[in-house]
Design brief:
With about 280 residues, the protein is α/β, with parallel strands linked by helices. It has 12 helices and 10 strands.
Length: about 280
C-alpha cells in the first residue's frame, strides 16, 4: 500500500508510523484519517510486527482534525474521493471505519503494544489518539491540549474515556473543561506520559523500548495487554485473577513457554516464534 499522508517503515519486528502532513501540522484531513485507519489495520494484522511506534513529521505530533475541511467547499467535495485507492476488507465492521475513532479502537484492540512518540503538539483528536496508545514517550518540546471545548465541541475519539483513567478524574476535568495547553514537564508530573526525553533522543528511546518489548514472547505480550485493559473495568479481584488464570493456562501450553524455560536453564537468549 502506497500512502500519501503518512509513512510506514519496518525495522525488524518494529513498525514505525509517521504522520506526514508537516505543512498542515500533521492534522487529520479525510485522506489521513482513512490512511491512518488502514495502516493501523495493516500493522495489527502483520504477524511479523511485534511493536508499533506512532510519531509525527516535523515539529508537530498532530494538531488534530483539519478544520479547513469543514469550512472549505473544495475540501468537502474531496471527502468522497479521499483515500479512494484504499480498499478495506468488506467484512471489516470496525466502528467508525475510516476515521480517528476507528484508529483508536484498532490501537486499543491490537494484540501488540503501541507506543506514541510525541515529538511536538498533540492537540484535540490526536491527543485522544495518543491516550489510546499503551505507552507515551514525550519529547521535551511536546505540548498537549484537549482543545475541543474552545472550538464549541466535546472530546471525541475516546478522550473523555481514556483521560480520566490515566490522570484521574479531577485533572481530566480541568484539562477538558479549560481546553488549556500543558507542556511536557506538566504532562510528566500528572502521569500523562511515561517519560520525557530530550527532543533529539525521542525516536532512539522509543525504538529501544519497542525493541525490548518485541524480544518477549508475542502471545504473552498479547494476553498481558488484554488482561491489563480488562482490569480497568473490573471491580472484583477474584474475577480478574480468574482471567489471569485463563491466560496462564493457554500460555503454559505454548512452544514459547517451553523455549523460555529451556533457554533460562541453558543460560542462552530465547528465540520466540509466537507459537
Amino acid at each position: 500500500m502506497a500512502y500519501k499522508s503518512l509513512i510506514l517503515e519496518k525495522e525488524g519486528p518494529i513498525a514505525i508510523v509517521t504522520l506526514n502532513r508537516p505543512d498542515a501540522g500533521n492534522s487529520f484531513d479525510f485522506r489521513l484519517m482513512v490512511e491512518f485507519d488502514d495502516v493501523m489495520r495493516v500493522v495489527s494484522d502483520d504477524p511479523d510486527i511485534r511493536a508499533v511506534i506512532i510519531t509525527g513529521a516535523g515539529k508537530h505530533f498532530s494538531t488534530g482534525i483539519d478544520l479547513s475541511m469543514f469550512t472549505d467547499a473544495e475540501g468537502l467535495v474531496e471527502r468522497e474521493g479521499s483515500g479512494a485507492d484504499i480498499s478495506p476488507a468488506p467484512d471489516d465492521q470496525t466502528y467508525g471505519k475510516g476515521t480517528v475513532v476507528a484508529s483508536v479502537i484498532r490501537i486499543r484492540n491490537m494484540n501488540k503494544p503501541v507506543i506514541a512518540a510525541i515529538n511536538g503538539s498533540a492537540i484535540g483528536a490526536s491527543f485522544s489518539m495518543a491516550l489510546a496508545c499503551d505507552i507515551r514517550i514525550a519529547s521535551d518540546k511536546a505540548r498537549f491540549s484537549m482543545v475541543f471545548v474552545k472550538r464549541g465541541i466535546v472530546p471525541d475519539s475516546g478522550g473523555s474515556f481514556t483521560l480520566p483513567r490515566i490522570v484521574g478524574f479531577p485533572m481530566a476535568c480541568e484539562l477538558i473543561l479549560t481546553g488549556n495547553t500543558i507542556d511536557a514537564a506538566e504532562a510528566d508530573r500528572i502521569g500523562l506520559v511515561n517519560k520525557v526525553v530530550p527532543h533529539d533522543e525521542l525516536m532512539t528511546v522509543a525504538k529501544e523500548l519497542a525493541g525490548r518489548i518485541a524480544k518477549n514472547p508475542p502471545l504473552a505480550v498479547k494476553m498481558a495487554k488484554a488482561d491489563l485493559y480488562s482490569s480497568m473495568a473490573e471491580t472484583d479481584i477474584i474475577l480478574q485473577m480468574k482471567r489471569e488464570e485463563a491466560s496462564q493456562s493457554v500460555l503454559l501450553n505454548t512452544e514459547d513457554f517451553v523455549e523460555a524455560a529451556t533457554a533460562f536453564l541453558e543460560k542462552r537468549e530465547p528465540q520466540f516464534k509466537g507459537k
